[in-house]
Amino acid sequence: MEADPYAREREEMVEYQIRGRGIRDPRVLAAMRKIPRHLFVPKGFERSAYEDRPLPIGEGQTISQPYIVALMTEQLELAPGDRVLEIGTGSGYQAALLAEIAGSVISVERLSNLADQARENLARARVSGVTVIVGDGSQGYPPGAPYDAIIITAATPSIPKPLIEQLAEGGRLISPVGPRDCQDLVKLVKREGRIEEISLGGVCFVPLIGQFGWRGEGSL
Ligand code: SAM
After folding, report:
1. CB 64 near ligand 1, within 6 Å
2. Which of 38, 85, 87 for a ligand 1 pocket mutation test, highest count of atoms within 8 Å of Cβ?
3. Ligand 1 proximity of 153 Cβ (cutoff 6 Å)
4. Please, which pLDDT band fits residue 41 given cuts at 50, 70 and 90?
5. Alpha-carbon 206 to chain mean position
6. Which Gene3D superfamilies does this entry report, sorted A to Z (predicted)?
7. Ligand 1 binding pocket includes 109 (Cβ within 6 Å)
8. Fewer CB within 10 Å, N or C, the chain?
9. What is the whole-number distance in angstroms between the Cα of residue 51 and the centre of ligand 1?
């Protein structure tokens, strides 16, 4: 097999941006050391793939900053075998990490071009266990429910009710919640049918466009 030309950049990303900022879950650190992020960015951006920032992936969308991906993944408290739902496949990078830890993930993307690109990226990176569905993820994905973990990687004015309903008992949900430009990263935990909410700080995400998110041009 070809030597990985970005192995050193990836190791430094994990050491300085991820571990250096306090991410400690060994499963998250191992997954970020393994998944080749440079295969999830558009051609010509490979050299920037391990930088401390989000990058454009086309259609006005982004692959999130590595630290934010790590933080959201750690807060999902994943274990192998967990049923996981991601809303906003984008490049497929976050989904690859989730599948590496949990074994499998269902990921819903609104834009079919991005869904196709994500499937291609995942195949090139030899990641299995990700099922990419094209649709409005603000409605969740009832066929796979209930989920032990749900991650929304786009900003929503409030957490879509169908997603709370599709969360299993003991399940965790992470989402940016708030205005269209920048938001609060929120974690929900369902305990004995009740919802506990924790704030994890400020973030800036592209909007979740859909029935239970923002209304936008070309909404599904
Ligand atoms: N998780 C992605 C990754 O690892 O590259 C980054 C996601 S990007 C910040 C947000 C994504 O959410 C975009 O690809 C966008 O098209 C998608 N999106 C927006 N509204 C959506 C909806 N209602 N259902 C599914 N995907 C949606």
Report:
1. yes
2. 87
3. yes
4. very high
5. 13
6. Vaccinia Virus protein VP39
7. yes
8. N
9. 20
Task: Check if 128 is active-site.
Answer: no
Q: Can you count the helices (H) and strands (E) in the chain?
A: 6, 9
SS3 193: coil
Ligand 1 pocket test target in 110, 116, 183, 204 with most atoms within 8 Å of CB: 110
CA distance 151 to 191: 18
Instruction: Report the pLDDT averaged over residues 34-52.
Output: 98
**Model ipTM over 0.85:** yes
The tokens for 86 are 């991601």
Following CA atoms 104, 147, 157, 96 in sequence, which dihedral angle do they give, to the nearest 10 degrees?
-10
Has residue 219 been placed in a domain?
no
pLDDT for residue 193 = 86
Where are the strands (E) in the chain, listed by range? 55-58, 61-63, 84-87, 105-109, 130-134, 147-152, 167-177, 183-191, 194-203
Domain assignment present for 218: no
Q: Around Cβ 166, how many Cβ atoms within 10 Å?
A: 21
The count of domains in the chain is 1
Note down the domain range covering 133.
Answer: 7-203
- Residue 51 within a domain: yes
Tokens of 208: 């979740």
List pLDDT tens digits, range 141-172: 999 999 999 999 999 999 999 999 999 999 99
Q: Is residue 112 part of a domain?
A: yes
- Mean pLDDT, the chain, integer: 96
The residue behind tokens 């993307």 is 109
Q: How many residues does the chain have?
A: 220
